[in-house]
Amino acid sequence: MAALMIQLIGFMLSGLGQFLMSAATAMDMWSLQDRSVNVVTNIYTYSGLWNTCVGTAYGTTQCRPFFTILGLPALLQAVRALMIVGIVLGAIGCLIAIFSLKCLKMGNMEDNMKATMSLTSGIMFLLAGVCGIAGVSAFANLIVQSFRFTTFTEGGFNMFGGGGVGGLSGNLAPRYTFGPALFVGWIGAAILVIGGILMCLACRGMTPDNRQRYDGMAYKAPSHHTIYKSDRPRPAYNDSYKAQSMDGPQSNQRFDYV
């Protein structure tokens, strides 16, 4: 019963983490413009893994996708790859975890097979969570470096090159800070790791005990008043017998025993 509860909780947490990590990958607010030092705050820019957008205080937004990957930093492309690999591993893990649930009967599938499938899905969830944490942390490191070295002078450093994102460049080069998508990705990847650990722990409780058992037999000691009777006739013993002499022939000598 405990293994079943651990497996169900691990599966639900893994599904939630998979959803959050997929949502974070699709979100555009990975990096958000820092408007703390800007005079005009009605217009701001933000970007994600696939698009760069310009928003206004009136609610209008215009996004432009990255049409080519050749002009993007190599680290950004690596983050894309890590997030996609994490989503694929998590999806395969969810598919395997559905068939490994102990509460579902899939034909004549034995508990050993379900335990193996549960362990496999748990390992995939762990790998997916690690990929998600690595990808989000790498992008966060890119934002930190861009924020630290970006200045408001001519030729300032920008995380997407010297031209700036959203059409701003020169002495108006914006600085970027953490967007909401980073926190969603971190939380989703952490939940995915926890779910994978629970799935691996549930594997041990699903394996049946294969130790050899011996059927014992109860022994009852006989009481002192038990009378044993035998059906075999007892041989009659004579009180005397003829002894043979050392020379060979029998002697008529008789020995009486008292």
Descriptive tags:
elongated, five-stranded antiparallel β-sheet, 7 strands, 46% helix, alpha+beta, 258 residues, two-stranded antiparallel sheet
Explain this structure:
By secondary structure, the protein is α+β, with helices and mostly antiparallel strands. It has 4 helices and 7 strands. It has helices spanning 2-26, 74-100, 111-149, 180-206, and strands spanning 31-33, 43-47, 51-56, 61-65, 176-178, 242-244, 250-254. The strands form 2 sheets. It has a 5-stranded antiparallel beta sheet. Strand 2 (43-47) and strand 3 (51-56) form a beta hairpin. Helix 1 (2-26) runs parallel beside helix 3 (111-149) and helix 3 (111-149) runs antiparallel to helix 4. The protein is elongated, with a radius of gyration of 42 Å.
Quick rundown:
It contains four helices and seven strands.
How much strand? 5-15%
* Spatial gap, N to C terminus: 80 Å
H and E order: HEEEEHHEHEE
- Helix % is 40-55%
Which strand order do you get reading across the main beta sheet? 4-3-2-1-5
- Mean pLDDT across all residues, rounded? 76
Low-confidence stretches: 152-157, 161-171
Radius of gyration: 42 Å
E-strand count: 7
Class by helix and strand content? alpha+beta
Large-scale geometry: elongated
The biggest sheet amounts to:
5 strands, antiparallel
Number of helical elements: 4
